[in-house]
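Hello again, I could really use a second opinion on something today. I've been puzzling over a protein and I'd love to understand its fold better. I'm sending you its amino acid sequence along with the backbone structure tokens. It would help a lot if you went through both lines with me. I've dropped the whole record in just underneath, so have a look.
***
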Amino acid sequence: WAMAAAAFGKHIQGFGANNPLVWNSLKQPAKRQRRVVSEPADALLAEVVQRVQGVVGGGMKLQLRDGSEKVCSPGEATEVWLTCEDVITSIVSLSEPGHADPVRVVAFAPSETDVHAWGFSCYLVFRRVSAVATRALAYFSTRSRAAAASAACANTTSETPVPASGARHSGVHALEDLLLWMSTYTDLFSNKCCITGTLLAADLTSQALLPPLLRPYKLSPEELREAAKYPNKRRAYHLHVAPYTML
């Protein structure tokens, strides 16, 4: 390259050998850009749902639905429904159709008829579960974004392929964690509190008798998968006795 530049310089005297416009064209080519790995958003969403369904088995049924609450393809999905017959129905809203990015979660009784992603259950027990689930969603989203940011910083000096969108992939991890965690509520009305040893306890504000409503969510992805797959590895807590660090 140096010899070619010198030879070329002899022929550009009449054009101004020191002209930056001439010499800029002779700069060494930039390093090859790192290859960007891209995968359709709806494919990522479908993979997450399939993985979680494979972990939880038949105890919890997962479905992708559109805005009219009809079962649909991944590219049209705006909601993920989790249904455990006679126990709980949960709805996770997505940021946009086909994107694995959760923005809201709400729980209902399977017997309720007025069920939609932006509503509330008429039963106190499921409103309380929805409140806990909202905290869990915030925790999973924050953890996933932090992990994505850390990975992006690590990849700035790496020649390995990087995801096309760190934010999108952080949503994927948050959604998978949330779905696994929601799947631990299949034993909502049968798993006793691991502190009091009781199934029912009076709610501090309403005095209604409620089952243990808290399932720990500050767990690693591996621990979440184990809890979702094996009911005997789950812990349940009444809210008034749960350790503060779990909330």
Observations:
- Residues 28-37 have pLDDT under 50 and may be disordered.
- Residues 39-153+166-246 form one domain.
- The longest strand covers residues 88-94.
